[in-house]
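sorry for the late reply, my laptop died twice this morning and i had to redo everyting from scratch. anyway the thing you sent over, i finally got around to it. pasting the sequence first so we're on the same page, its 147 residues, then the predicted structure underneath. double check i copied it right bc i was rushing
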Amino acid sequence: MLFEPGSAGLATIDAARLLAEDEGAEVTVVSLVPAGTGGDRCGVSPIDYRDAVVGAVARDLEQARMRLGAAGADATFDLLASGMDPPLESWCQAGGFDLILLPARRRFLRSRGHPAAARLSRLDGVEVRVIDPRPAGLAAGSEAPPR
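ok and here's the structure:
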């Protein structure tokens, strides 16, 4: 599963935890480190900026580990750095995964989805599920019913 901060990322972790608990699924959690844009013009060296971003993503992975609870004891956690590690699609293909969970993202004038979903769906033998934290039947742009 791909972990990203936010409610969709937490819902994706919860879905992975249920698969591990109910079906004995092996869980691999990956987070992506985007290519850095910091530099001397920002008063921060590119190396320090990249280290700070890597540290933030590593903390995100630790949050995912804690949220997985007991299911996280046997889980694998990886951090993929853009430009240094293989692209997500290549990494997933090499990992031999049969199910990939992605957190839904808001997309302007489109249904919620994830930008990597279409590319990952093209991998042989892989099912891709986009996890939306909103209750089923809640239309985009609408509000949750009052409690």
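Helices lie at 7-23, 46-68, 88-95, 117-121.
thats about all i looked at so far, will dig more tmrw
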